[in-house]
Amino acid sequence: MLSTLVENKPGALFRVVNVVRLMRLNIEGMTLGVTNHGEDCRITITLDGDEAAVEHVARQLVKVIDVLEAHTYSPEEVTARELALIKVNTDKMSVADIQKMRLCRIVDSSAHSVVVEVVGSAKEIDDFVKSLTTAVLDIARTGVAALPKELPA
Amino acid sequence: MSGARAIVEALEREKVEYIFGMPGGATLPFYDALWDSKVKHVLVRHEQLGAHMADAYGRVARRAGVCTGTSGPGATNLVTGIATAFADSSPVVAITGQVAKAMTGRNGFQETDVVGVLTPVTKYTVQPLSAAEIPSAIRKGFYIAETGRPGPVLIDIPKDVQQEEVEMTFPESIQIRGYSPNYPVDVQDIERAADMLARAERPVLFGGGGIRIADAASQFTAIAELLMAPVITTLQGKGTFPEDHPLSLGPIGMHGRAEANRIVQECDLLLAVGVRFSDRSTGNFHEFAPEAKIIHVDTDPTEFNKNKLVDLSVLGDANRALTLLYDALLRRLAKRDENNAWLKHVNQVREELKGIPAYRDSYAELSGPKIVKLMRSILPPEAILTTGVGRHQMWCEIHYKVLRPRTWITSTGLGTMGFGLPAAIGAKLAAPNVPVVDFDGDGSFVMTEQALATAVEERIPVVSIIINDRSLGMVEQWQRLMYNRRFVGIRFQNIPDFVKLAQAYGVQGRLVGSLQEFGDALREGIRSDQPSVVEVPVSHEEDVFPFMPPGKGIKDTVYGTSKEMAVF
User: What is the ipTM of this complex?
Assistant: First the structure.
């Protein structure tokens, strides 16, 4: 996982993604949000690739002028959350059953489906989707947002 | 003040002498503002040439060279020149025109997303979207291009922004949050490096282009002389240590000096300064300097452990780091003498390798290596040599002793054919009082020959020497040695008469048939106040040796042709 803080201005994301592309890594998830009173932007990228390649990207990113910080983290080093919206077929799984499930909340209902919101780690969302089996109609995931944990004293 | 006027004013404040380029629709407001400026416009015949001129100017002048092109093809023609500067860490500021903001994304006439195209091969790109942003964009551009590890910066300015009239303020200094090029050198690193060097029994100093950039050649030389340790360089680093010095072994690499490649394999400590351990220098990374502890001094932290794992990395400007290191060494040891066992061994190896076929003169009257050696004896130490890319360049690597920093200007990182002549023009404008010679091949020369037009117009007296083997010689060599003599696409069936070609541009051209005639032509060329071309016909069959085949190590180095090696 790559966490980078960039100046909040047009083209900054392009420069970050360009370095990832150069190393031929695939982006599996990415979140981006403005921080520091609108001056900066935090980008968290989940990458499919070996550690050395991800580390290479992080080091090259530090050299990009618009990048303020870039770090790589293992899953244990960060607090990470992802949000997913999942449309569930209520003909296959009852609303009552859905309401009993952990982590989720129904945010919209229609005649034959509901949209549920799930917040958790990427693995928790994976597991949740699995438990719905064939009732899943559609999924939109945000990608992981992460902040590093405080180092133990 | 208009945006266009602000560009020119900002360039004047940066004390820009020359701008190399060609006008077009999207740069017309900018060119109009050049009318009454002190900045001199040098008209090129293709924007790539302007980028090479700016690049070489930057390498010689220690400050950014400036080039320009209009939107669309003007900007895309710059790409090869900008990528060349990027690969060799050269300070360049490129200013391009762009279609008016309202026309963005409409695929109008001469619109190219040049920021998108050039981002991967520039240190920074900036696109001012209002005229008021121009002064700070240009200040920022020069600051980024010239500091830290230098590199090219693109400033892309839409036409309507050039035409916009606003109140301007010109910043003296600027803050860039994500950029701090001046790392203080960690004194503890220096102490550790000094300990390692003092303990080493077989130290070698390894200098790269970073020493030239940081103006650290005198500190580097002082350390070598204190330790009495042999010195090797990269191809880009030639001249960071005088190659006629008794401690100099010359460059390592694919076509490096045999003694340099041999000794680096035997050292127990390698002090590498301003190098990036390129594959062309090291061969196989794993087999390179296998017995050595490595200290790496560099201003770019991303270079540490990128290609070769090192034992100690010292971050910082080479000039500052080597000054501190010299003092730290003085506290540990007295100047060593030349009778140390390691140096004796080094000189023995040097003696042993003197007789390799690669160092023997060819029987032919005219050959690349003989011409190179004669050229060195004729040119004064301060003369600047530029090159194209190919066998002629490699003969210079092996046989041309570079004596001073910034007198060897060549494209090593990108290996751009056609670099030589425009680079000679840029170098001559940066150093008008020294002779400047472009040592070129016939293949390289024809790629940018139209720079002769600029040389004539601007009365820039550079000498172009064309080693004419009527072939793409370096590729021919690889096809001969590695592709079983299956020659494809290398022989020029039609080649211009270079003497007549020169004359067509109004340039003195000479075809030489002997070393004597070559010497006369070169002497005449560097005395003249006009550009000149000297054609030297050579055999296409003379290959460059020593040759360390790609991906191989020093033990696989070939010192001569198979016939020569059979009797060696």
Answer: 0.88
